[in-house]
Design a protein that fits this description.
Length: 46
């Protein structure tokens, strides 16, 4: 019984970690977009 619960908990944790990683990636991509837009805006001013 204990190993079954442990197995489920591990599976849940893997899914959560994967979700967390993809969330982090999308945040990083959004930041890159913002930086790119800022750089273009500054170039336009110069």
């Amino acid at each position: 019984m204990k190993s079954r619960v442990h197995e489920i908990a591990l599976k849940d944790q893997k899914q959560f970690t994967r979700f967390d990683a993809s969330k982090n990636l999308s945040v990083q991509l959004a930041l890159l977009d913002v930086m790119e837009a800022t750089k273009e805006g500054l170039m336009a001013l110069v």
